[in-house]
Amino acid sequence: MIFKTPMTRLAAWTLAPVAAASLAIGVPAIAQSSGTLSAVQSHLKSTSSMTADFVQTDRNGQRLSGQLTLKRPGKIRFQYQKGVPLLIVGDGSSLTMIDYEVKQVQRWPVKNSPLGALLDPDRDLTKYAKVLPTGSGDVLSVEVKDPKRPEYGTITMVFVRDGSAPAGLRLRGWVALDSQNNRTRIDLSNQKFNVAVADSAFKWTDPRPKQRGRAG
Fold first, then answer.
1. The whole model's pTM is what?
2. Distance CA 105, CA 70 (A)
3. How far apart are the first and last CA of the chain?
4. Which residues pair with 88 in a beta bridge?
5. What is the DSSP string of 7-54?
6. What was the pLDDT predicted at 6?
7. CA dist., res. 155 & res. 178, Å (int)
């Protein structure tokens, strides 16, 4: 069985409620750039859907892979590799973590997570975001958090300039950091934008006793 350690499960639980922190690790923040934030906002509004392969790395260096499916507004699915009994699904209003091994389900309102910045293209980034330096004009790094609700964690999305991607940007990944400093990195590859994604992709099977059936 691939899914073995408590840290792997913790990494996934960290990803679910907060999905987040910077790929520009250890680099201090600089003054907010309205031009960068405007470019990122344009990309989010121009991307109605996306599929990608992902690699998730926890703070101990343990790695899991899978496929990400996103459909705005509000829908996302992290389908882990075979042998990992976890699923994370956002259905437009709630973000749900399903652990089929222990038959446990937990939900959070998407609006209570910085992941909402990725899923809601109409969210005003200027109220929550700041630009981080990357050392490259082709890489944009934007940190998003609610200073009034630090328990929600932080999301710093990292983009690279790509003329073939919506608004000229391609989401490269992010790293998750919750209020207890549990860190989970997500790297994306094989991104496909504005492809057809059925709403059924965001359904899931409830493993809890006496509550079996399709949900979400």
1. 0.81
2. 21
3. 27
4. 78, 97
5. HHHHHHHHHHHH----SSTTPPP----HHHHHHHHHHHHH-SEEEEEE
6. 55
7. 9
Backbone angles phi, psi at 50, to 5 degrees: -160, 140
pLDDT, position 21: 30
Give the mean pLDDT per block of 10 residues along the chain (216 residues).
52 51 31 74 92 92 94 92 93 89 88 68 78 89 80 84 95 82 88 96 90 50
Q: Where are the beta strands (DSSP E) in the chain?
A: 49-58, 63-71, 75-80, 86-91, 94-99, 104-109, 129-132, 139-145, 154-161, 169-177, 183-193, 204-205, 214-215
Rounded Cα gap, residues 115 and 37, in angstroms:
16
Angle at 188 between CA 183 and CA 194, to 5 degrees: 130
Enter the tokens of residue 122.
Answer: 């109409």
β-strand pairing of 169-177 with 129-132: unpaired
Determine the pLDDT at residue 13: 53
Residue from 170, 119, 129 nearest 35 by CA: 129
Q: Supply 80's token pair.
A: 């882990």
CA distances in angstroms from 128 to 56, 78, 195, listed in the order given: 25, 25, 29
Which of these, 129, 166, 146, lies nearest to 44 by C-alpha position? 166
pLDDT at position 9: 60
